[in-house]
Amino acid sequence: MREINVLKTGPANSIQDLGRFGHQRLGITQSGPMDLVAFRTAQILLDNPDNAPMIELAGMGGDFRLGRNSSPVQFALTGAKFAASLNSTAIDLNRVYMLGIGDVLSIGAAQIGNYGYLALRGGIDIEHVLGSSATHSRAGLGGHQGRTLRAGDQLSVGSAPKLAPVLIPSASRSTAGIETIHVIQNPQSEMFTPASLDRFYTQVYSVTAKMDRMGVYLTGHPLSHRAGHDIISDGNPNGAIQIPGSGLPIVLLADRQPTGGYPKIATIITADLGRFAQLRGGQKLRFQPVSHAQALEKLRRVNTALENTPKLLVSAPDRKESRLLSYNLISGAISSGDTMPWED
Amino acid sequence: MTHQPQQSPEFPRLYPMGDSAFVVELGDAVDPGINQAVLGLELTLNHMSIHGLSEIVPSYRSLMILFDPLILPLETLTQKIHQALLQSPNTPLPRARHWTIPVCYGADHGEDITEVSTLLNITVPEIIAAHTNAEYRVYMIGFSPGYAYLGGLSPRLHIPRRQTPRPAVKPGAIGIAGQQACVFTNAAPTGWYILGATPIPAFEPARDPACLFRAGDQLRFAEISPDRYNNLVLDIQNGLDITAAFAAPAPANLGPI
């Protein structure tokens, strides 16, 4: 039996799989990971199926421990950089660790980015609602009891044979400067004055603190609509940038409402969605228009990088074994300063 | 009812919305004929089983087609849509269902009814009469699970949205705003005015189908007493077949074309 207990958790952490598809025509939101690349990276590290459910950490992590009679579970953290430790020793992103009996995995606040992924080898074993285990907390669908996680929750973990510990050498992510987010312009952009449309691409926007899985509010100089800001409600794709009466953009993301009645000036390309979702309050960005062909080229590049990830995996040093080796080398003199956690 | 779109040189209007969504607009009005054409095109595209097309989101007058651009090139999708547009006027739509939805008006179930009475200067019985004497069309399902956008509200009940949203309504709340009526399925704050409530759950994830209504359905409201409301709540808990009890095939002139 494999089980993990939530001892403590941030308020917006949820179980996600790739998302709930085929039901938007019934008003049922897609959900799924805010950063698909980070989500997929975690599955590759743990050699899990593509759709295995994992925990998405939104801004704030939590404390996790094995259930009372659970066998050890391997895990990895990807996506946003969180302050994280296993039994008080710092752990890295993009690396497979073992959560052993009595261990406490403690994940604090996000330091770079917003969304982290705590994936477990074998995935979280949870029932599907309408074909998916993704949580849509607003509608009370999927995940653990249709809601975000709470302290005291107990999650079953699917069984899977133990994996050799691996890691992806980390690439540092810069947070300085102005991010460029690529978009495809929509014909609904005709609803804006030419000066406003020009301003949309030239001005620097800031991400506000008003953000969740549904959408992100941006601030900058307001755009002007030619005449009114109502359209007859129609479909909202992932990454749609809608401009309501305020003239300021709201970017619609994984938990967006499937239909809406504000004009959508442009849509963020799929390749840039995860990078956009990781922008934090106060970070600056600019929108740059690209063609459909350019968007696909960028998407192919992201996919190729993910497909090549297994080649990048290297064996993680087995700290337990190297410790034993050092004992031998120094003929039994055990260093009391060695506080490495048991992991493999 | 035919689902031939209104003839206009502007429509159909086809355009991509980002790299993985494609929009087909068949008009720019809330109109039963245009909406019927949307549903006909959706069904035609579904029958074509296009590889790489993942999902279609129909709305009042347009369809959003979600696809994987690395499997289904934009050019191929566009060709398929043109092909579907030619075929869709001949695609028979499923027979529209005709629902009679019981509603308990006013008091605990419709706390805004007296406010509406004051704002529109009509009596509460007149509100109930205007609301129950209309035939509504389900134009689309969206916004939240199973939430039906209804057209056909009596002009006597047209009322602007609230300036600031009212506190959360309960699932089953029956609302009006602008020219629209709706049945709420989720507890949510809203700018709509609440006239009453139905004991019928329009969305139940564990039920098959999860959503009671589908676009193209016709709907009427019928007034019930608070006692009847409570009894129906119990009947539904005890497994009452909602479809059998409240839906009937529409008269022939509302059926397939």
TrEMBL record, chain A:
<dbReference type="InterPro" id="IPR029000">
    <property type="entry name" value="Cyclophilin-like_dom_sf"/>
</dbReference>
<keyword id="KW-0378">Hydrolase</keyword>
<protein>
    <submittedName>
        <fullName>Allophanate hydrolase</fullName>
    </submittedName>
</protein>
<dbReference type="InterPro" id="IPR003778">
    <property type="entry name" value="CT_A_B"/>
</dbReference>
<feature type="domain" description="Carboxyltransferase">
    <location>
        <begin position="25"/>
        <end position="305"/>
    </location>
</feature>
<keyword id="KW-0067">ATP-binding</keyword>
<dbReference type="Pfam" id="PF02626">
    <property type="entry name" value="CT_A_B"/>
</dbReference>
<keyword id="KW-0547">Nucleotide-binding</keyword>
<dbReference type="InterPro" id="IPR052708">
    <property type="entry name" value="PxpC"/>
</dbReference>
<dbReference type="GO" id="GO:0016787">
    <property type="term" value="F:hydrolase activity"/>
</dbReference>
TrEMBL record, chain B:
<dbReference type="InterPro" id="IPR010016">
    <property type="entry name" value="PxpB"/>
</dbReference>
<dbReference type="InterPro" id="IPR029000">
    <property type="entry name" value="Cyclophilin-like_dom_sf"/>
</dbReference>
<keyword id="KW-0067">ATP-binding</keyword>
<keyword id="KW-0547">Nucleotide-binding</keyword>
<dbReference type="Pfam" id="PF02682">
    <property type="entry name" value="CT_C_D"/>
</dbReference>
<dbReference type="GO" id="GO:0016787">
    <property type="term" value="F:hydrolase activity"/>
</dbReference>
<protein>
    <submittedName>
        <fullName>Allophanate hydrolase</fullName>
    </submittedName>
</protein>
<dbReference type="InterPro" id="IPR003833">
    <property type="entry name" value="CT_C_D"/>
</dbReference>
<keyword id="KW-0378">Hydrolase</keyword>
<feature type="domain" description="Carboxyltransferase">
    <location>
        <begin position="12"/>
        <end position="213"/>
    </location>
</feature>
